[in-house]
Amino acid sequence: MMSGPLSPNSWHYRELNARNPGLSYLSDGLIELAEAGHPVVAGSADLQYSNGLNKFAKAYPDRYIQFGISEQNMVTAAAGLATCGLKPFVATFASFLGLLCCEQIRMDVAYSAQPVRLIGHHTGISLGFYGTSHHATEDIATMRSIADLAVVSPADGPQLQAAIRASADYELPIYFRISRGRDPIVYEDGVTFEFGKAVVHSLGEELNIIACGMAVHGALEAAKKLNAAGRSVGVIDMASIKPLDREAILRAAGSAKKMLTVEEHNVIGGLGAAVAEVLADEGAGVKLKRHGIYDEYSLIAPPTHLYAHYKLDAAGIEDVALGVMNG
Amino acid sequence: MSSPGGSAALHGQNDFTPTAETVAMLKEKAKFVRLETIRLIDIAKTGHYTSVFSAAEIFAALYYDVMKIRQGEPKWPGRDRFLMGKGHAAVGQFPILAELGFFPKEWLDDYTRLGSPLGDHPDMRKVPGVDFSSGSIGHALSGGLGMVLAQRFTGETYNVFALLGDGEMQEGQVWEAALSAAAHKASRLIAIVDRNGYQLDGKVDDVIGIEPLDEKWRAFGWEVHVVNGHDVAALTELLRRVAADTARTKPCCIIAKTMKGKGVSYMETEPGWHLGWLDPEDAKRAIDEIEAREIG
């Protein structure tokens, strides 16, 4: 039997919201929509503490549906809900949503053009030592190839909330690829988001880095250091992977002859591939380095150790960028 | 047409028995479904005759009696919904949807031709009156569950019918949906299993057996009924009863015992007819038999 109070340093799963402040942006975005009279409902597959939807469920218990561990059922049921005029947001780990539910997403959501919002959280290798079963380094590739499905990879919580706000006027389905709520904040609250529009932080003369998701923060930090050392490196946040801002990519190609894409995803089929397609289509004549996970399964480690190992943090991106510029 | 079965009051307090006139009308509609299926598959030169024939009476009873629908208004929010897990039977559904004024009958004449909205499987994006797309077996019950759950938020009341194949019972997602529907007390969800006994590779019970099917559904928390799916009177009465039963707290499963290929004797004994085409002489034999024979 337990005796005495527990140490304040101990924690359990239901306190994840307090530990990962970034988690609340998802629920905050949905609450904002609900308060504005938007027909939003939310569903989760036994992960409401992991994705922070417990906050929405508490605020709007009648608008929350617990599906249990039945992700495929949840996605198809969301399509059914959407046929009745609702805007369902359904969430589970990106590894399950983008891979296990790929066919339900194509068939029932995208092919049927239902305005379902799919929230794939803990994407990339952010689940660290939980291992490959819980990693999603293929979800951009699978989701990007599905017609009529938008793919959005916000850099942080404020940008996620902005994208949720923007989704109110977006009639097609959306796959949101988000991280674990502990990522460094890039944008201020109240930032705006537009589907198909990149955030061009700066354009460089030597190199432009195009990043998405958690890699945006590292890319900005790396560019700051490199520019302080006299180099000329620009950064573009390509949160809207589909629709893709082709014009921003071509502007970057016009300003520097070297380009680097950075993503927490396999270098096959992801953001780098999307950028490469545009450059090839347009004959842009730019040397492109696609940086990410090099067609392999991640090692086991805490997430921050993995980001360092795979050069997806600021120091790693700086190192890769130097290699591209000096190569 | 607002079908009479939509309101229990029209049938009296507790009497859901269809009149002889209604039964005769529904038999004609089932005949119409079979004949149109032969006509349309002849355009495509390949199709699922027998999957439609086992469900012809189910189609007729639902669309021409039980379901609350409005002719010419496929998007009416208060309508009963119909989903097909066995989407390959869409060729039997399209003539009904056209007759209900959901799209021009001329569309049928170009069935499966380049650019036609009408293919082997139903597409809600292209075909007015199709409530949910189908083609990947196992999704329909989940989609129907979503439509029932939506009532909590929209305030509309309607029944959702999901016609499932018996081979479809082998799909895992069916049982995810079954468990979930019972947990959510989705009492307006009515699954109809077309228990025709066959799938592509042979008898369902030989491929991957599914019995005892009624016990499975019951164990998953559903109210279960078993009916002869070709007995128009019994089938219609049961469907009317479960549609009107607002006291039920569980979702409802109807196991319709049917015969694959019912109505054309040379198909009834040959499982290979799951997919095929009839040359004009054999088509005539089939048409003659359908016109002459009384089913149900």
Query: Can you say what the CATH homologous superfamily of chain B is?
Result: Thiamin diphosphate (ThDP)-binding fold, Pyr/PP domains
Q: Could you tell me how far the N terminus lies from the C terminus of chain A, measured between alpha carbons in angstroms? A: 63 Å
How many strands of chain B? 7
Strand fraction band of chain A?
15-25%
What's the main sheet of chain B like?
5 strands, parallel
Give the overall average pLDDT of chain A.
Answer: 96
- Strands of chain A, total number: 12
Number of helices of chain A: 13
Write structural notes for this entry.
Chain A is α/β, with parallel strands linked by helices and 327 residues long. Chain A has 2 domains: 13-177, Thiamin diphosphate (ThDP)-binding fold, Pyr/PP domains (Rossmann fold); 199-326, Rossmann fold (3-Layer(aba) Sandwich). Chain A has 13 helices and 12 strands. In chain A, the strands form 2 sheets. Chain A has a 7-stranded mixed sheet, sandwiched between helices. Chain A has a 5-stranded mixed sheet with strand order 7-9-8-11-12, with helices on both faces. In chain A, helix 9 (215-228) links the parallel strand 8 and strand 9. The radius of gyration of chain A is 20 Å and the shape is globular. Chain B is α/β, with parallel strands linked by helices. Chain B has helices at residues 20-44, 49-53, 56-66, 90-99, 106-109, 140-154, 172-183, 204-208, 213-219, 232-244, 265-268, 280-292, and strands at residues 81-84, 160-165, 189-195, 198-199, 202-203, 223-228, 252-257. In chain B, helix 1 packs across helix 4 (90-99), helix 1 (20-44) packs antiparallel against helix 12 and helix 3 crosses helix 10 (232-244). Chain B is globular, with a radius of gyration of 18 Å. In chain B, the strands form 2 sheets. In chain B, strands 1-2-3-7-6 form a 5-stranded parallel sheet, with helices on both faces. In chain B, strands 4-5 form a two-stranded antiparallel ribbon. The longest helix of chain B is centred in the first third of the chain and has 25 residues, at 20-44. Chain A binds chain B through residues 39, 41, 62-63, 65, 67-68, 70, 72-86, 88, 103-104, 107-108, 111-113, and chain B through 77, 123-125, 131-133, 135-136, 139, 142-154, 156, 172-173, 176-177, 179-180, 183-184.
